[in-house]
Amino acid sequence: MPATIKNSIANFFNIDSIKSKGYVINLLSKVVEGLEKFDLPKKTAILLLFVIIGVWAGVSTYTDLSFEHEDCKSFGKRAEMGTGICTDYGKRLFFMTHYEDEQRGMNPLRVVTFELLNLSKNVFDDYRIIPFISSGFLLLLTYFITFEVTRRNYTGLIAVLFVLHSPIFFKYDLIMTYPNFWVTFFLFSVYSTFKVWQLSYAGFFLGAISKILNILNFPALILFVYLTGNPKWKKIVGIYLGILGFGIGGVLASKWIYPELWYRFYGIFLSQFEFNPVDFLWWLGMWSVELFSDKITLFSIFLLIPCLFMLKKAKVRNASALLVMIIIFILQPAFISGFTSYTNEDYRYLHLVVFVGIGIAFLLPNLRVLSKSFANYFTLKK
Questions:
Q1: CA distances from 86 to 28, 107, 195, 292 (A)
Q2: Distance between terminal CA atoms of the chain?
Q3: Angle between the 350-363 and 295-313 helix axes, to the nearest 10 degrees?
Q4: Is the distance from CB of 335 to CB of 230 less than 8 angstroms?
Q5: Which of 160, 168, 180, 358 has the fewest CB atoms within 10 Å, counting from its CB?
Q6: Is the pLDDT reported for residue 288 higher than 90?
Q7: Domain layout of the chain by residue ranges
Q8: pTM of this prediction?
Q9: Alpha carbons 182 and 95: distance in angstroms, whole number
Q10: Which one has a higher pLDDT value, 19 or 222?
């Protein structure tokens, strides 16, 4: 790159060196300085959080819970009638209506999902209520995780608003076919590492038996705990690895001790594993296809990754943790399609949407450091 171009780019990003170059630049500089120092009082932020969640709840209950359709009753107005999602609903509804007490142990890989849906039907006479409550907790956990990584109250609100913009969140916020229990439990396991770390294991376990693919989040969680500098990271990671080893040993032992139960519980699931190098390579480059419906998130990812990388180089706390988490989530579709017979669906990107929102919020109090990092990168070394 020619030196003049590199110097121009460096000057553009260096806020401190361009304060005197016009009203717009001065205004931009003041905004950057303001966001670096700005925060809301905790009580004000919490109040605004509940206002935001309340507005979402009102809109969702009005547009979805009040809507019924004889074939797709539990999907709401935003679902596309006659598409695969309603076909899946028919299958799920059939399973739920035949889910007798003696069958409750037949599918341990999704037992939490089915039990929560049964509870919702039995208590509220509607399968959608507990998925709706789960979506509310998902938003709350998004706020509190954002606060933990930024130590700012207002950034959590930004992250929640980002999640609420997403068509993926709104498509699945209160449906029974693809409820977001697994994401909510995963977020709980992440948040618990900052507070009561012992609860993290319960959250991750419940997430895994809500959606077995949640196991793919295990490396992301382990690296997140390590990269956030958690003072108890060795103990947390050690226990996680111990539980993982014990679980693998138990599954293998059950194959010889209870072969019929092993095949019913795990054999059918494990039979889905098959390596397809073409699909793996395809999804390494085409993961964004499923995100076309959420163009803001897709654009934000391409913006966020280089920004987090520069903040990582500047040694900004938690930048590495968020960067690694997002990259792992982006790579997951390649492993799902490349190593199993499962196909990728857009609902499996919800955790990515959440952490992209957290990442965008993370940038705001670090804009000055970010601008200096880009300026230094493009400045010619003397």
A1: 48, 22, 40, 21
A2: 16
A3: 50
A4: no
A5: 168
A6: no
A7: 38-378
A8: 0.84
A9: 19
A10: 222
